[in-house]
């Protein structure tokens, strides 16, 4: 036997002994080889580029998904807060007869457990005119205590005060409406309502001048440019209500459990009352938001899926390129499981690190989204987030921990699944075939 033959026999014997003894799963040498495959040398630069693009794809996909979902959550939360902060969660109306016993009904409802406040309201469309402009507006006649209980309004008064609101004939209006009318605190505007006095020639519009006693900014452009609050007693006179109101709006401590409050209020007030709630009044609006949010999640999840497919293509090329290395490892005693784990670690490392980087990028972006929006607006010279189109005056982003965790878990699972087939193909490589032409 020659020396070379003796060496081959020794190598074969040592390989068989190593193969029989095997190695522990995810041992140090598996991590070492996987790390070397990730740090490709110059002649293997193309594979390194593919791995880099896979990493960027996972990172940007996860970050984009987190950012968009946070913005959608922020939109819903802010819109819900603005709408529910100004309107009642439960709307109580009187059937048939005029709603003149609203004080007793309000007191009865206020005693229902979980009810925060019950406020009688008169509501009507008007035309608001100043010396320079005439616009449409929505008047809501409320009591001073009820108006102050609306934190959205009471905490956002920019000029004037709500104190003594019941004892005056002045009005409170939104800041955008005041700006468009070019009026300020103490100025006079004229309200014109089509629901005026009846005459032989039909209903005559009612017109009356009011002083602006306070100006508020709710942060929702639609409300800030049309909402007007008037003392309840004055609204009854202006709209010829004769001691009655339109509805009693009820604010509860848990709007999501509104069905229970509907039942309790109905039991407390009796059959002469009809009830609806915020879901029925804003059903279309919130349904559209929910559908849009789900569709965006599905579409943006495809970015992560495409990035995971890039991991598959990159690993397949790596397996093909490392066929000789795999064969040598097998002859030295590496088991099929060890080879499979090496490529599993290589591919999963790209996905896991990319997912974690995307998580950090998405969270940091959401925390600084308003500053980023302002910078982009300044750099581009355009309005990135126009309040007149998007209702809200600033771009909201609210990160949901459970939802973000689900996005990260989805990306991790896809990344690991993407490595299974290339890793299995590597483990099935025949050392004899791989070394035949070497």
Keywords, please?
58% helix; six-stranded mixed barrel; elongated; 18 helices; disordered N terminus; 438 residues; alpha+beta
Outline of the structure:
By secondary structure, the chain is α+β, with helices and mostly antiparallel strands. Helices cover 58% and strands 17% of the residues. It has helices at residues 3-21, 28-38, 45-86, 102-110, 144-149, 151-154, 175-181, 221-224, 232-238, 258-269, 278-281, 283-321, 323-331, 336-367, 369-380, 387-390, 401-427, 431-435; strands spanning 90-94, 115-129, 134-142, 157-160, 171-174, 188-193, 198-199, 202-203, 206-216, 227-231, 247-252, 273-277.
Secondary structure blueprint with pairings:
Layout (H helix, E strand, L loop, with lengths): L2 H19 L6 H11 L6 H42 L3 E5 L7 H9 L4 E15 L4 E9 L1 H6 L1 H4 L2 E4 L10 E4 H7 L6 E6 L4 E2 L2 E2 L2 E11 L4 H4 L2 E5 H7 L8 E6 L5 H12 L3 E5 H4 L1 H39 L1 H9 L4 H32 L1 H12 L6 H4 L10 H27 L3 H5 L3
Parallel strand pairs: 3-10, 5-9
Antiparallel strand pairs: 1-11, 1-12, 2-3, 2-6, 2-11, 4-9, 5-10, 6-9, 7-8
Keywords: Cell membrane, Lipoprotein, Membrane, Transmembrane, Transmembrane helix, Transport
Protein name: Lipoprotein-releasing system permease protein
InterPro entries: ABC3_permease_C, Lipoprotein-release_system, LolCE_TM, MacB_PCD
């Amino acid at each position: 036997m020659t020396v070379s033959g003796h060496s081959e026999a020794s190598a074969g014997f040592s390989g068989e002994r190593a193969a029989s003894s095997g190695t522990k799963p995810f041992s140090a040498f598996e991590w070492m080889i996987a790390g070397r495959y990730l740090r490709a040398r110059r002649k293997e630069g193309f594979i390194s580029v593919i791995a880099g693009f896979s990493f960027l794809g996972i990172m940007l996909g996860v970050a984009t998904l987190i950012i968009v979902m946070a913005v959608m959550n922020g939109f819903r939360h802010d819109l819900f807060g603005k709408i529910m902060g100004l309107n009642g969660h439960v709307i109580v109306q009187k059937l048939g007869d005029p709603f003149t016993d609203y004080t007793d009904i309000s007191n009865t409802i206020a005693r229902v457990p979980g009810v925060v406040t019950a406020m009688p309201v008169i509501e009507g469309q008007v035309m608001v005119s100043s010396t320079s402009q005439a616009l449409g507006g929505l008047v809501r006649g409320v009591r001073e205590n009820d108006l102050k209980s609306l934190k959205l309004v009471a905490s956002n008064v920019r000029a004037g005060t709500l104190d003594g609101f019941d004892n005056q004939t002045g009005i409170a209006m939104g800041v955008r409406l005041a700006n468009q009318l070019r009026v300020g605190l103490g100025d006079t505007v004229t309200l014109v309502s089509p629901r005026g006095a009846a005459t032989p020639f039909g209903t005559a519009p009612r017109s009356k001048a009011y002083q602006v006693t306070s100006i508020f900014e709710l942060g929702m452009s639609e409300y800030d440019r049309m909402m007007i609050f008037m003392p309840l007693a004055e609204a009854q006179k202006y709209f010829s209500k004769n001691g009655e109101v339109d509805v009693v709006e009820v604010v509860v401590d848990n709007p999501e459990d509104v069905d229970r409050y509907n039942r309790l209020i109905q039991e407390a007030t009796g059959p002469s009352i009809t009830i609806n709630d915020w879901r029925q009044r804003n059903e279309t609006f919130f349904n559209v938001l929910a559908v849009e949010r789900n569709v965006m999640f599905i579409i943006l999840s495809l970015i992560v899926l495409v990035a995971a497919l890039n991991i598959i293509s990159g690993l397949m090329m790596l397996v093909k390129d490392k066929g000789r290395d795999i064969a040598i490892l097998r002859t030295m005693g590496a088991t099929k499981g060890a080879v499979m784990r090496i490529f599993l670690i290589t591919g999963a490392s790209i996905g896991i690190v990319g997912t974690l980087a995307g998580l950090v990028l998405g969270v940091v972006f959401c925390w600084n989204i308003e500053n980023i929006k302002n910078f982009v607006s300044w750099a581009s010279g355009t309005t990135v987030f126009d309040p007149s189109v998007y209702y809200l005056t600033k771009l909201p982003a609210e990160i949901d921990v459970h939802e973000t965790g689900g996005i990260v878990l989805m990306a991790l699972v896809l990344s690991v699944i993407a490595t299974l087939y290339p890793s299995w193909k590597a483990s099935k490589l025949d050392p004899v075939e791989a070394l035949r032409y070497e």
